[in-house]
Design a protein that fits this description.
Blueprint: E1 5-7, H1 24-27, E2 39-44, E3 51-58, E4 61-67, E5 73-80, E6 83-88, E7 94-98, E8 102-106, E9 112-116, E10 123-131, E11 137-147, E12 160-170, E13 176-181, E14 201-203, E15 207-212, E16 218-222, E17 227-231, E18 238-242, E19 250-252, E20 262-266, E21 272-276, E22 287-294, E23 299-306, E24 319-322, E25 328-331, E26 340-343, E27 349-355, E28 360-367, E29 374-377, E30 380-385, E31 392-400, E32 406-408, E33 410-412, E34 418-420, E35 426-428, E36 433-440, E37 447-457, E38 461-472, H2 478-483, E39 489-490, E40 501-508, E41 523-530, E42 536-545, E43 548-555, E44 562-570, E45 573-581
Parallel strand pairs: 12-14, 19-23, 30-38
Antiparallel strand pairs: 1-11, 2-27, 3-4, 3-28, 4-5, 5-38, 6-7, 7-8, 8-9, 10-11, 11-12, 12-13, 15-16, 16-17, 17-18, 20-21, 21-22, 22-23, 24-25, 25-26, 26-27, 29-31, 31-36, 32-35, 33-37, 34-36, 37-38, 39-40, 40-43, 41-42, 41-44, 44-45
Length: 583
């Protein structure tokens, strides 16, 4: 009879990491000294507008970062230790794990509101945490199991310590709802040939990602088996095994396979995607691999392998994420250049960045995100046409959404054509607002756009909101500008927040964009309001209109308080903005 003894354990980590300070003239005023690894954009075409989430460790210090496409931070929080898997969760939390056994949840003000646990007797594994919209979560556990390996291999230790994983579904109150233990379902010899089974301590399964499949079952990446396992969420039985020694699939159009993979995910088209580290394959290079699976006939057809010309190899870490625009975000694991890449459907690079100074990164993500520490209205300002040497002013309101006051002590704008006239610091009283004066003063001809970063900063945290600023100069007459709009625009509703009515302004250009038939200069215009889940609330406009400037009212008296969105569609032009109903 083969027997196993389970023991709780923690593995210590030693890493030699360096750090660097972002030049204060680049991102921060002189009153701030925030340390995190230096980054640089190397390619920029047409990336997703969602923010980048980066969990970086340097010099033993963790850094939680949310940055825009110019690497300007809207959120920063120091963390003690090595960070894994900083991300946004569907219940609205920010989560991250500190090696080896601590998992935290933050609200969008950076305040710790949660901790995540494995059941008693099981250590937490840092590799993945999936929080569901109801607050329950899937988490990977880790244990030491004592095994007489001489029963399995010649020269095996009679009391070997096998590092094995488990998967646990915990409710929002940290009670276990379901569990699955690898030791009960895998064979000891299922590892790939590069796991030395004669050692005293054996890193056996090394599970590193959990995916809740579209049918509710579980996809588990077991790295040291080179395997993806599909697990029946009800019975715990293994449904199928892809890759590795116990592979059940026939691979089509793929003679390479995958090895030591990370981040196995189900795509919206039904295919399976993963970050293939390619460790021990010949030649060694890392890639993004997509398979079309026939789960009835057990075939895996290679659809896509993105390799960066076989030039990048990361022995450990890495990730992939499908973005709402169809692009794929790639985290290159150990690689410092590139560190993060975004590719489109044709595998062309839309965005890429590198680390200038060393950073330990597990996975990067993109998500829409905004803080609830304070609110701004409007979230975009179009100054229109302003002659060189002249200036225009606009008001920007800051609202405190908290029961305590909020201090704003930084503004940051790249383009000095825009400025804020108010002096810092500014205190927003609890449940109240203050008004900023924003100025556009062009010093040369052209079209100007930038983001005003409004920030609350201390020695360990930065929280910011971004306001989009646009303005232009022109040499044509005022009459031509008014009567012949040349650019489409959708303005922020005013007032915002509102109760119960607000107004929305938009401009229809004179020259049609692709998608219009051009009948009599009329263009089909659609303006729709949606709720936070994307459900259509009402259609404000759905008809053909001539070029010009328009204003329409929206009444929310029959709607509950909350966040809504309105979208203007005109041919190939589309723009969406947020409105907040507060009753």
């Amino acid at each position: 009879m083969k027997t196993f003894t389970k023991t709780l354990f923690i593995i210590s980590l030693y890493a030699c990491l360096s750090n660097a300070q972002i030049d204060s003239s680049l991102y921060f005023n002189d009153n701030v000294s925030l340390l995190y690894p230096t980054m640089e954009i190397t390619k920029f075409n047409n990336p997703s507008e969602d923010y980048l989430f980066l969990g970086l460790t340097s010099g033993g210090s963790g850094n939680l970062l949310i940055v825009d496409n110019e690497l300007t931070p809207v959120f920063y929080r120091k963390a003690e230790g090595t960070v894994f898997n900083f991300t946004w969760q569907p219940d609205g939390e920010l989560s991250y794990v500190i090696y080896p056994v601590f998992a935290y949840g933050l609200d969008s003000s950076g305040v710790e509101i949660n901790r995540f646990y494995t059941p008693g007797g099981v250590a937490l594994d840092v590799h993945d945490l999936r929080v569901l919209s109801d607050g329950s979560y899937y988490i990977i556990g880790k244990e030491l199991v004592t095994v007489d390996m001489s029963q399995y291999v010649s020269g095996g230790d009679t009391a070997a310590a096998l590092i094995t994983n488990s998967v646990h579904h915990m409710d929002a109150d940290d009670n276990e709802m379901w569990s699955w233990y690898a030791i009960d379902h895998y064979n000891i010899l299922d590892v790939d040939q590069y796991v030395d089974l004669t050692q005293h301590q054996i890193d056996w399964t090394h599970c590193n990602s959990i995916e809740i499949d579209t049918d509710g079952n579980i996809l588990l990446s077991t790295r040291n088996f080179d395997e993806v396992t599909k697990i029946d969420r009800t019975t715990g039985d293994i449904i199928w095994r892809l890759g590795g020694e116990k592979n059940q699939f026939t691979f089509i159009d793929d003679t390479r396979g995958f090895s030591r993979q990370h981040s196995v995910r189900r795509l919206s088209n039904g295919n399976l995607i993963m970050f293939d580290n390619g460790h021990y394959l010949v030649p060694e290079y890392s890639s993004v691999v997509e398979y079309e699976l026939d789960e009835t006939n057990l075939t895996a057809t290679l659809v896509r392998r993105y390799t960066r010309n076989e030039s990048v190899f990361s022995q450990s870490r890495g990730g992939v994420q499908e973005l709402p625009n169809g692009h794929i975000l790639i985290s290159w694991g150990e690689s410092q250049n590139p560190a993060v890449t975004e590719i489109n459907e044709q595998d062309s690079v839309e965005f890429e960045m590198k680390f200038v100074s060393y950073a330990h990164q597990y996975r990067a993500y993109r998500f829409k995100w905004e803080t609830n520490l304070f609110a701004v209205s409007p979230d975009s300002i179009d100054f229109g046409i302003v002659a060189v040497g002249d200036s225009a002013l606009a008001e920007l309101k800051l609202y405190s959404t908290k029961d305590s006051s909020v201090t704003i002590n930084e503004f940051f704008i790249n383009d000095n054509s825009f400025s804020v006239l108010n002096e810092l610091p500014i205190t927003i009283p609890s449940q109240d607002s203050v008004t900023l004066s924003v100025m556009f003063k062009p010093t040369a001809e052209g079209y100007f756009k930038d983001r005003l970063n409004v920030r609350s900063v201390n020695d360990t945290m930065l929280i910011g909101k971004q306001v989009y600023l646009t303005g232009a100069t022109t040499l044509v007459s005022v009459e031509d500008r008014v009567n012949s709009p040349v650019q489409f625009s959708l303005s922020q509703n005013y007032p915002n927040p509102f109760n119960p009515s607000t107004k929305i302004k938009f401009t229809i250009a004179k020259s049609p964009l692709p998608g219009w038939d051009g009948r009599g200069g009329l263009q089909l215009i659609k303006l729709v309001v949606y709720d936070l889940l994307g459900n259509e609330v009402t259609t404000l406009i759905n008809k053909e209109l001539p070029a010009g400037n328009y204003e329409i009212g929206f009444n929310g008296s029959n709607l509950p308080s909350g966040v809504y969105f309105y979208r203007l569609q005109a041919g190939s032009y589309s723009s969406t903005k947020k409105l907040v109903l507060l009753k």
